[in-house]
Amino acid sequence: MLVRLRIRRYDPESDEEARWAEHVVEVEPSSRVLDALLEVQRRHDPSLGFRASCGHGVCGSDAMIINGRSALACKTLIRDAIADSPDDDLATITVEPMRHMPVLRDLIVDQQPFFQRYRAVKPFLVPKDTAPDRERLQTPKEHAEIADATNCILCGACVSACPILGENPRFLGPAAIVQAARFVFDSRDVGLQARREPLDEDNGVWPCANHMACTRACPREIKVTRLINLTKRELGRARDQAEV
Ligand code: SF4
Ligand code: FES
Predict the structure, then answer these.
(1) What confidence category does residue 26 fall into, taking pLDDT thresholds of 50, 70 and 90?
(2) Whose CA is nearest to atom 3 of ligand 2?
(3) What CATH number corresponds to the domain at position 139?
(4) Residue 75 alpha carbon to ligand 2 centre in Å
(5) Nearest residue to 113 (alpha-carbon basis) of 220, 18, 203
(6) Domain region containing 217
């Protein structure tokens, strides 16, 4: 079948501002949007810039806006992406770079600010004692507390979807909070105090207003908003204990 890809393009060396480019490509309904982009790059315009690596929803590198929603191109089937196209027209799929991240070129965004926030929450185990001879063990029940957050692939789709970041670009953002939650709720971690500076400040967890756009956007089906709320509650508990 033929589909029209409408792609937001921007080359800092030749474009004063972003523009739209259209390409009609032949794909299967069961192909992914990533296959259509690769087809454009191979047969229409090799200068099209986008990130992708694993092709299977694991590396998190091909998050973008597809038909207005944050998603992974490798996990979005053509038949789903064209579901809302009118029957009497050539089906069109609109592709744009992620929001709330500076565009470097075409669909490639600058991930530096994203990873700065990730690093700020200390995304590693802060243990209470020195390393034991064997690994630090956890019960299945303890692991269940962090299992959801461990599924994060750092794709940034939740950040791109977050309406709060549109109003307040200094908000820490959902992905960094998920990473914090991954360790805050780990039975072997005692690092909440060390993470309070990025989390428990005006632009930390508190600007989140439960829009749930992050949860809807997450390709790993992580309950992002729930983890943000649990982290808020944990920070509140730590404050109460500090005051006793
Ligand atoms: S929480 Fe989900 S959407 Fe956000 S970075 Fe992790 S995997 Fe991507
Ligand atoms: S290419 Fe790795 S997640 Fe899509």
Answers:
(1) very high
(2) 57
(3) 1.10.1060.10
(4) 8
(5) 203
(6) 111-243
